[in-house]
Each structure stands twice: as C-alpha cells, then as structure tokens.
Amino acid sequence: MRGLIKQSTAFREGARDMSVVAPGIAAWGLVTGVAMVKSGLSVPLALIMGFFVYAGSAQLAALPLLVAHAPVWLIVATAFCVNLRFVIFSAQFRPYLISYNFRKRLLASYLLGDLTMVLFLKRFPKPGVTKEDIREQGHYYAGGSAVNYLAWQCAQALGVLLAAFIPMSWGLGFAGIVALLGITLSLINDKLTATAAGVAAMVSVAFVALPLKLNLVIAIVASISLALLWQAFMDKHGAQSGAL
Amino acid sequence: MESTTPQIIDAVYALITAAGLTLVTIVTRGFFILPKRSLTLPKRVERALKYAPIAALVAVIAPEILLNTTTLGPAWIKIVAVIPATGYYYWRRGILGTIMVGMGVFLILRAFT
Q1: A116-120 long-range contacts, Cβ below 8 Å, gap at least 24?
Q2: Looking at CB atoms within 10 Å, which of A24, A224, B42, B47 has the fewest?
C-alpha cells in the first residue's frame, strides 16, 4: 500500500509543490530549534518537544514563559490562543476528510500546517466527490505534508544540535521573536486587528511586573474584549472597519 | 571562556509542558475534523477566534521587544532592529527575509555596543 502511494502522480505532485517552499520551512525550523536551546531547554528536551509538538509558533511563544517558570496551564492556554488559526483551518478542511476513519483524520489533522493548508486549498478549491477525486486529494496531501514534515523536523533537530556551538551572548533567541512578529504582521489586516494588537502590547507591558506571566492573560482578555466591543459597535452603526 | 550553556529549564516541568503543547496541537488542528458530528460555534466565539491569535502573539512578544531583558538585552537595540524588519515585511511579505533583516540589524548593533 505504501509503495503504491509513492508511485501515485498526485503524491509526487504534492511533494513537488511543497519542495518549492521547503527552504523557507527548513529555515523556520532551524530558527525554532536554535531558539529552544538558547532559551534554556537542554538538547534532549528540545528534541522531544520539537518532535511531538510540531507547531513552530506555539513552541516559540512558549519559550519566554518557560524561562519565567510560568505555570503549565498558562503556557498551554497561551499556545492554544496562538494556535487558534488552526481551528479555523480545521473547519475549512473537514469537508475533505469526512470519508476517512478516525485514525486517518487524526494523522491528517496533526500534520496540518500553514503551508500545507494553503497549497492544498490552492490545488483543490473544492472537496472531492468521486472516490478517485478523494484518493487523489489524499495522495496530494500526503506528498505535501511528508515534505513539510521532513523539512521542518530535520532542520529543527539540526538547529537544536548546532545551537550548543553558538555563544549565549549572541542573543540568537531574538530570531524567534522576529519570526513571531512576522506571523503577527500577517494577521493584522485592518484597523480592528491593528488596534487589538496595540492594546495587547500596551496591557502586556503595563502588567509585566505580575508574577507567573499573568500579564499575558490580562492582555489577551483586554485585547479580545475591546476588539469585540468595537466590532459590535461598528456593526450597529454600519461603519467601515478601515481596511489597511 | 564564553558561556554556551544557558540556564537549564527543569526537565519534568518542560516535559509536562511539552505534553500539554502536543495536546494543544492535536485539539486545535483536529477541532472540527476529529468529532464525528459537525460542530457549530456561537457567533461571538467565532469572532473572538479572529482576534485571539493576534492578542496572544503580541502579548508574548511586546515585553520581549519593548523592555530590557536578561536574555535578549537592551530594549533600544531590539526596537531599532524591529523597525526595518517590519518595513521589509510590508515591502516583500516574506517571513524569512523579515527574520534575516531583524537579526542582521540586531547582531550588528550588539557587535558595536
């Protein structure tokens, strides 16, 4: 069965499309691996965390919290918020997977990354109807996720192993912060989201003296509440949201 | 001798966190896929979904960039590095390039101060 998949054209097409962006994925993984060790995770712990979590932005967001010895529930809650865009992806992806059994759906959803979703939806804007269509889509997804997974995991492991040779004083953990900034900027596309970001920044900094990184909770709650209130106000009064 | 080993994060704490994070990965990515029956969320929750990732990401990185920290150094260097990185992002829209610009300015400033 496995051998047949590798021979399928859809699988190879998926792998090829993903290979084009694989260098970017690898660099991203490398940065994450280095940042994990530079923040204080030992090499074995970084390898384990990187291998199982398979979510770059959640891993990077967790690092400052781990350094500050924040409680586990807070790290998990923050990572959950950071990963909420995947909840939206999973809603978009569901129609393609309903014919699969639970184990396949578990594997397929676990492997769902930003680029995997983007490339797959570009190739297949509509879910398959016939058995052949569904199989073709499954093979394409398998090819794409395989390349994504390998590129990411290998680069990340390499980053973890090489990080030990880089002095702490270089401050390379900053690469992780800039990466998160990039993701944040990609999510900000109108006045409302920009304001939410601004509020979160100010509140988070204002309450930074609180123990256990509680400034994060307050900032997240304040930011979302304000954004929802403003959006409700604008819906009522029919104003534009001011796209940037 | 230059220190290459940072402070060590406690292993049990890290492993429990890693387990929790793995769960987050599985739950968020499988949220609408794993259940047999399709779910519907209340409108307000759907809207909150849009702002939560931004709020969480900014809440985490804002203090790291805007304040002096032990791991990453003085705030002014980080702020100055972030400006061209942001500019690059809006010019080219590539995260990789953004990281390189930000890190480049950051490392140069650190080398000369």
Answers
A1: A116/A18, A116/A141, A116/A144, A116/A145, A116/A148, A117/A89, A117/A92, A117/A93, A119/A14, A119/A17, A119/A18, A119/A21, A119/A144, A120/A14, A120/A144
A2: B42
Which chain A residue has its CA at the smallest distance from B45's CA? A228
**Could you tell me if the ipTM is greater than 0.85?**
no
Strand positions, DSSP E, chain A: none
Number of CB atoms found within 10 A of residue B31's CB: 21
Cβ pair B3:A184 closer than 8 A: no
C-beta separation of A210 from A198 below 8 A: no
Interface touch A45/B18, C-beta < 8 Å: yes
Query: Helices A174-187 and B43-66 meet at what angle, rounded to 10?
Result: 140
**CB–CB contact B58 A24 (8 Å):** no
Q: Is the separation of the CB atoms in A10 and A136 below 8 Å?
A: yes
Taking the CA of residue B57 and the nearest CA in chain A, the distance in Å comes to 6
